[in-house]
Amino acid sequence: QVQLVESGGGLVQAGGSLKLSCTGSGFTFGDYAMNWFLQAPGKEREFVAGINWSGISNHYPNSVKGRFTISRDNPKNIVALEMNSLKPEDTATYYCAAGARYRSGNPQDMKYWGKGTLVTVSE
Questions:
Q1: What is the DSSP letter of 102?
Q2: Is the four-CA dihedral 68, 38, 87, 79 of positive or negative sign?
Q3: Could you tell me which of 33, 24, 49 has the C-alpha nearest to residue 101?
Q4: How many CB atoms sit inside 10 A of residue 117's CB?
Q5: Contact between residue 70 and residue 22 where contact means Cβ atoms under 8 Å apart
Q6: How far is residue 5's CA from residue 21's CA, in Å, rounded to a whole number?
């Protein structure tokens, strides 16, 4: 059975840092681009970071560029999101997702989803 399990969410003060991890199982992890999405209350899910199958190419929206870093460890089936200089507006549930073997930040193109981990950034 395919699973993506996120961990590392929690409460952090503005300006602080947090590292999220996502562990995959039940599929060939290294065949897929991996992505992080966020969803704030009452908002649609939006792209936050992506990394190609090998880890050589990373992509971010302007809202997190320079603050967040995505990485992966294929032998361990792990994709991580290092978040720095956190802001209250970063508060959301963060989801990892496995995409196709082409670049996409569209949630509709994702093949597998985790259940999410909540990140709360306080003032």
A1: S
A2: negative
A3: 33
A4: 21
A5: no
A6: 8
pLDDT (tens digit, 0 to 9) for every residue of the chain, 123 residues total? 999 999 999 999 999 999 999 999 999 999 999 999 999 999 999 999 999 999 999 999 999 999 999 999 999 999 999 999 999 999 999 999 999 767 899 999 999 999 999 999 999
DSSP assignment of 10-73 equals: EEEETT--EEEEEEEESS-GGGS-EEEEEE-TTS--EEEEEE-TTSS-EE--TTTTTTEEEEEE
CA-atom Rg of the chain in angstroms:
13
